[in-house]
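In this section we walk through a basic example: taking a raw amino acid sequence and producing a predicted 3D structure, encoded as discrete structure tokens. The instruction is simple. Fold the sequence below.
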Amino acid sequence: MKNIIINLKVITPLFLHGADGRTPEIRPASIKGIIRYWWRAARSENDIDNLRKIESSIFGGAGEDYGRSPVTLRVSSNARPSYNHYFDDYRNPGLRYLFYSLFLGNNRACGYFDADTDFKLRLSTVDARSSDKLRQAASALWLAVYFGGFGMRSRRGAGNLSVYSIEDESKIIINDIDFIPKNINNATDLQDWLLRNYKSASSIISDCGGTMKYSNLHGARLIIIESAKSSWNECLNYIGKMYMDFRRYESKLSQRAPMGLPIKGVRIISRDSYNRSASRLFLKVLKINDLYFSYILSLKGEILPRNSKIEAKGKEFSIPDDSIIDRFIDSIPEKVEVKL
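The resulting token sequence is shown next.
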């Protein structure tokens, strides 16, 4: 058996729950689903049938042609959930804006895993012929940790993690991707570290050159805020305030679909049964030593099928292009940027 053991630490509150949607639990199925998402994002495959075929050969799939995944994922944790929503503080309007749905209705009673909680993931395969598939799964996990997040509001800064140790005796991945951020003192150092490791992960997964059929990393924009902060709260409040002000004062309701749906007051008109579309904008926090860096990732891909329209304030509009996301990113001061 070949194993990769990765020890992770929570940076921002992790709202990951069990099958009932309320009990805090770090479930392998939930983690694996997120890893699959980032594998697809890195693959950037225009042939969706081929994408599903290769994905199922790595992670498993329904039907006679696929069956169980050759890569298993196990979670070990003694983490205790918290129920104190101390971050629901009117002095942090940007943070409250990003986390707003966590404070609605029954969500207030949901627990979470607080910052500095740690847990262990084990990726493994018993089949020596599946070493490449294990390598791809580990690469997708790196992307999930450093480009995405886990659980509720993960696109808006919740559920951010970092790796603090890794065991890879068979050298499946450790010589290709650096899982532990180090020698990073400023935003430019972080940009170089993220880009270098992204290129390695993308190469292992085999980037197919981009697609507009779903959200993907090929040609994505990565923006890092130059000024580091002293806490995750400060990071998310800073970036959340900019995001809140832009949506309120610099954009029309009919233009906001690329930032994610549903939106109050906007209805999707489509021949398909769409009523929502996940945002392609990820807001991130990463702790390195005693500093917290914030950054933004804007994926590529269509927000909704081309035959769709939206209705806002009683009027029909075509689905807007990505220019509103570009305008938001361009409005951010003191940043470094790279195109993936």
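Looking at the output, two observations stand out. The mean pLDDT is 89. The radius of gyration is 20 Å. In the next section we compare this with other chains.
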